[in-house]
Amino acid sequence: MNTEVTIAGVTLKNPVMTASGTFGSGEEYSAFYDLGCLGAVVTKGVALTPWEGNPTPRIAETHSGMMNAIGLQNPGIELFCSRDIPFLKRFDTKIIVNVCGKSLEEYVEVVRRLAGEPVDLLEINISCPNVKVGGIAFGQDPKAAEAVTRAVKDAARQPVIMKLSPNVTDIAEMARAVEAGGADAISLINTLTGMKIDIDRQCFALANRTGGVSGPAIKPIAVRMVYQAAHAVSVPVIGMGGITCASDALEFILAGASAVSIGTANFFNPYAAPETIEGIRSYMEQKGVSDIRELIGAVRDRA
């Protein structure tokens, strides 16, 4: 049984990876299982300089999910390279570095700094709804998304994945824009912008007022957008948004995703990723599928 998938020339042992912002650089989760079982680890977003993130409170529960307004808090590229990459190299898994920035120049500088580092792919976050500059501004304008993609590609030595925002009118248009800019793959969806109000205190639940909604509640939206994106571009698509188990992951794969990322589920079940890997293998055995690639985009209308 073959569970290998290839993203931009990089072969993953299976299609399951972790979603940026939910797994740090894996150190905490390595106490639960061998990270080498994963297809890839996607790191928390890393910027040119350390970011403190947004003021607290910046986490709130929602029905069947959560909201966050962390604001891409991170230690900066230098500490990341000296501390986190050596840790991840201890495991037999691929390393995908999520890159964030407040300007086009910052994205490019981080990508250049990573050019000589032993990482496999770069995921460029142009879709975070919790930063006031950069991020979401690039992710909602097709021309800006294409421009930042092209600039990053010119500077990158590793293949580039562009992470798309769901907070747009036409996800297919955004997918085509980053493909035109040279993206080697795309990933989606990032969180949906939402708001929660504490009715007892009559105030916003998050200091940032709005935050990114994630978790099982957003999965149907994510599956739809992954399907639309996968049918709009020829590059591989990585799907995410509310995946908690193998059946969730398989929806995305059948919709056209070559791989999937597990995010919020890591917070309430640290074994979500390895359990999903095993569940996919069990499904393949039950269905007589010898190669995971037979399932990618295999959804069909009901007979």
Task: Please give a structural write-up.
This protein is of the alpha/beta class and 303 residues long. It has a single domain (5-54, 71-193, 215-294), classed as TIM Barrel, CATH 3.20.20.70. The chain is 31% helix and 20% strand. It has helices spanning 77-88, 104-114, 136-139, 142-155, 171-180, 219-230, 246-255, 265-268, 272-287, and strands at 5-7, 10-12, 16-18, 40-42, 59-62, 65-68, 94-99, 121-125, 160-163, 185-188, 192-195, 197-198, 203-204, 210-214, 237-240, 259-262. The strands form four sheets. It has an eight-stranded parallel beta sheet with strand order 3-16-15-10-9-8-7-4. A four-stranded antiparallel beta sheet has the order 5-6-14-11, with no helix packed on it. α4 (142-155) packs parallel to α5 (171-180), α6 (219-230) packs parallel to α7 (246-255) and α7 crosses α9. The protein starts with a strand and ends in a 16-residue tail after the last helix. The model has no long low-confidence stretch (mean pLDDT 94).
Which SSEs are present, and which pair or pack?
Layout: E1 5-7, E2 10-12, E3 16-18, E4 40-42, E5 59-62, E6 65-68, H1 77-88, E7 94-99, H2 104-114, E8 121-125, H3 136-139, H4 142-155, E9 160-163, H5 171-180, E10 185-188, E11 192-195, E12 197-198, E13 203-204, E14 210-214, H6 219-230, E15 237-240, H7 246-255, E16 259-262, H8 265-268, H9 272-287
Parallel strand pairs: 3-16, 4-7, 7-8, 8-9, 9-10, 10-15, 15-16
Antiparallel strand pairs: 1-2, 5-6, 6-14, 11-14, 12-13
